[in-house]
Design goal:
CATH superfamily of the largest domain in chain A: Type I PLP-dependent aspartate aminotransferase-like (Major domain)
CATH architecture of the largest domain in chain A: 3-Layer(aba) Sandwich
Structural class of chain A: alpha/beta
InterPro entries (chains A, B): Aromatic_deC, PyrdxlP-dep_de-COase, PyrdxlP-dep_Trfase, PyrdxlP-dep_Trfase_major, PyrdxlP-dep_Trfase_small, Pyridoxal-P_BS
Shape of chain A: globular
Number of helices of chain A: 15
GO biological process, one term (chains A, B): amino acid metabolic process
Modified residues (N6-(pyridoxal phosphate)lysine) (chains A, B): 287
Largest sheet of chain A: 7 strands, mixed
Protein name (chains A, B): Tyrosine decarboxylase
CATH topology of the largest domain in chain A: Aspartate Aminotransferase, domain 2
Number of domains of chain A: 2
Number of strands of chain A: 11
Oligomer: homodimer
Distance between the termini of chain A: 54 Å
Keywords (chains A, B): Decarboxylase, Lyase, Pyridoxal phosphate
Radius of gyration of chain A: 24 Å
Chain lengths: 484, 484
């Protein structure tokens, strides 16, 4: 019944408004005030899902979803998740389900090899990987490990002096993780980037900031470098940044949440060149790697640093296998004790696609993004704001196109950058309210850009072409009546 | 195919050795060294699951699993999880899938009302609830909220003075969360409990410790009280503890991870009497509430305290609904940004069981635990170490039974408490290695006890009776040849 329901959902998902059109509070009005006293049949509940839940979904699996970064699903990932839900084991330590731990150590090595991560990040070297829920958790774990390692050298009373570095394009998760870990909020540095470096973090800016902090008596702790930033998919230069960090004995984490997956293709691998100088590396397999939410892969060179910070050994969890030190107990590699059997779905995806088809899957998206970029470039009213990396295109209506309209309409008025931002904001809103497609935005150096992220499992060229037509139609409407 | 596989699994699970019998490293030998280049059919992967994964599972869903606390599954929970995996939406903010947010606010209120939580913890009052992965995350969020609230009053440089309180029976998750949040490791107080209070935290001991800390210039921050501790299901007296904490302006969190679920039964509700004095309350619906892993419900009186610490508002996530402040954005109530649509499975469980059957489910387990307790009590060689709370029995072979054996066998030697511990350890190991049942242990005031936790979805009286026979058989064997 549920399988049929989901099959119908995927058949029809393309027809639904991508962005849900409900108003805040809609659901409260549809559901009873409290839990029923007596059981209700699954059929009744499923009816309510159709009637009340589906209209309130923003359809992330629609091929017309081009917002944020995608959260891809696949039959293999779904089946793996079903099995893991069915077994419902809690593999916090090896003994609590050896297969859950061992399969995880195996698949993170498989994936690490596909990425050509240095041996030092793999169990087959002296490192290792772990599957967590999200990058937020992964980064928190690494900051805590770095923090404790540093404080063990300089004394716990110096927590207040530790500084975390990132760029102003870095995901907000890093700042949040630093704050949770007790890093003083004033000691988070979001270093300015600019169009000159395509919004990549400049090693010189990093060094300058570090020097300033050291002079002020602070202690550089942690650098998060990003491969594929959220606003524009910018790529920080890992090799040079790691070299700077090394001078100051800092921990470097590489956040490749979105773009890391693509690096299994030889043509994208150069973007993580220099990763050998980092301490940890993560990507979200639920983003562009078909595993369904959630599955973040984190590799570290020195698992003992994680374990020192995150291990607990209460008597009620003690067991011979742990005492023997022959096994991995993943509870000591993460924030939480309980953990789902996530490796099963990643294993299903790796095997049922194989390296060849996984590469094709991502290359196909990159090709479609290039197609979209080409369409935008042909329309002189628009500009591509930053070079397209991976499968994301950042574009906007040009201020000049707005000025021209104003002039054509015989009206007066200068079009400022702020006016252009406002026009692009309106354009995006009108596109999204149509329900035909869903895109989101970013602001870089004060410029409002529309992000077009290709990556849905079901997306085809025709969806991309239609999406561009939708953009043009809405742009026409906005331009025809435009006044600054 | 997968459904048939799982149906067979549940049919046969009773016959498998509960505790997996594999040796460390077994799986590496069964699987290839790297990801296949070409796709493999699902049938082949599923064959490998049967052959290589199932033997490496410790079967948490077996009716013969009496270890730790259970992680219950149900058809309703499974179907809800399938739907949420199928939709695969990421409801970090309201706009990203309104139904995911709104259903969550509704079900946490439903469950809160079933627990008769004060209105102040519910959205229908001024509080609210959130579904997170595990108690570890929930406690970390509350410690961070309490920390930032306190530091905003006394200055961020005083982080080093903050103290977190719990009992020596409190789950290790609390100490770990405090450490992650940057609380100085020396400022975690695990206050001693004893058999006199059945291992509940004494309000007098708490007050004495707080006074000492205040005199030393430290700042009391946070108390975690537990209803149903992991070692012995002990119950901290919430009303009195909250009164002490209130005197010092501390945040009180109630960890009812295991036993909270049972409090939907009027006869168990008194165990959370006094919760109105706490700031936050959590239980794991994946433990005793049939939702499958993972689903921790956290309620707070003052959501703004959480939000102040955990909110982020990067430009690329900005939207009109958020700006209107008419909606809940759950990303600001938790560690992570991305989040699974967990409310769906909890909603399925609540409706497909109804209040009546949920209560019966738990009462039935409590009844079976009493049955087991009765069987143990009848055998004079054993003792029930602490009064049985909820559905967990703590028992051991008595030192006197060991002495008697020694005497009967005509041998010499005193039986110390340590000898008794060693004998009980051996008993448990021999029981678990048989594969017939799986139980775990705890140590309280130096006494090794065997924990028998009833709570598997499929457990019936016959399994409990058999489990006791298994214990007796293995005890007979150990006693027959016993020497200290």
């Amino acid at each position: 019944m549920i399988i049929d329901f989901l099959a119908d959902y995927y058949r029809d998902v393309e027809k639904y408004p991508v962005l849900s059109q409900v108003k805040p509070g809609y659901l409260q009005k549809c559901l009873p005030e409290s839990t029923p006293h007596n059981p209700e049949p699954i059929e009744t509940i499923l009816e309510d899902v159709k009637k009340h839940i589906v209209p309130g979904l923003t359809h992330w699996q629609s091929p017309n979803f081009f917002a944020y970064f995608q959260c891809t699903s696949s039959i293999a990932g779904f089946l793996g998740e079903m099995l893991s839900t069915g077994f419902n084991v809690v593999g916090f330590s090896w003994i609590a389900s050896p297969a859950a731990t061992e399969l995880e150590t195996i698949v993170v090595d498989w994936l690490g090899e596909m990425l050509e991560l240095p041996k030092s990040f793999l169990f087959s070297g002296k490192g290792g990987g772990v599957l967590q829920g999200t990058t937020c958790e992964a980064v928190l774990c690494t900051i805590v490990a770095a923090r404790d390692q540093m404080l063990s050298q300089i004394g716990k009373e110096n927590l207040i002096k530790l500084v975390v570095y990132a760029s102003d394009q870095t995901h907000s998760a890093i700042q949040k993780a630093a704050k949770i870990a007790g890093i003083h909020p004033m000691n988070f540095r979001a270093i300015k980037t600019s169009k000159l470096t395509s919004y990549a973090l400049s090693p010189d800016s990093l060094r300058a900031q570090i020097r300033k902090d050291v002079e002020a008596g602070l202690v550089p702790l942690f650098l998060c470098a990003t491969v594929g930033t959220t606003p524009t998919a910018a790529i920080d230069p890992l090799d040079k940044l790691c070299a700077v960090a090394k001078e100051y004995g800092m921990w470097v984490h590489v956040d490749a949440a979105y773009a890391g997956s693509a690096c299994i293709c030889p043509e994208f691998r150069p973007f993580i060149h220099g990763v050998e100088g980092a301490n940890s590396f993560s990507l979200n397999a639920h983003k562009w790697f078909l595993t369904t939410l959630d599955c973040c892969c984190l590799w570290v060179k020195d698992p003992s640093a994680l374990i020192k910070s995150l291990s607990t050994n209460p008597e009620y969890l003690r067991n011979k296998a742990t005492d023997s030190k022959q096994v991995v107990d993943y509870k000591d590699w993460q924030i939480t004790l309980s953990r789902r059997f996530r490796s099963l779905k990643l294993w299903f995806v790796l095997r049922s696609y194989g390296v060849h088809n996984l590469r094709s899957f991502m290359r196909n998206h990159v090709k479609m993004a290039k197609l979209f970029e080409g369409l935008v470039a042909k329309d002189k009213r628009f500009e591509i704001v930053v070079p397209t990396n991976f499968a994301m295109v950042c574009f906007r209506i040009l201020p000049s196109a707005l000025s021209e309209t104003v002039y054509k309409n015989g009206k007066l008025g200068m079009v400022s950058e702020e006016d252009a931002n406002e026009a692009n904001r309106k354009l995006l809103e009108s596109i999204n309210m149509s329900g035909c497609v869903f895109m989101t935005h970013a602001v870089v150096e004060g410029v409002y850009v529309i992000r077009f992220a290709v990556g849905a499992t079901l997306v085809e060229e025709r969806h991309v072409i239609t999406a561009w037509k939708v953009v043009q139609e809405h742009a026409n409407a906005i331009l025809s009546t435009y006044e600054p």
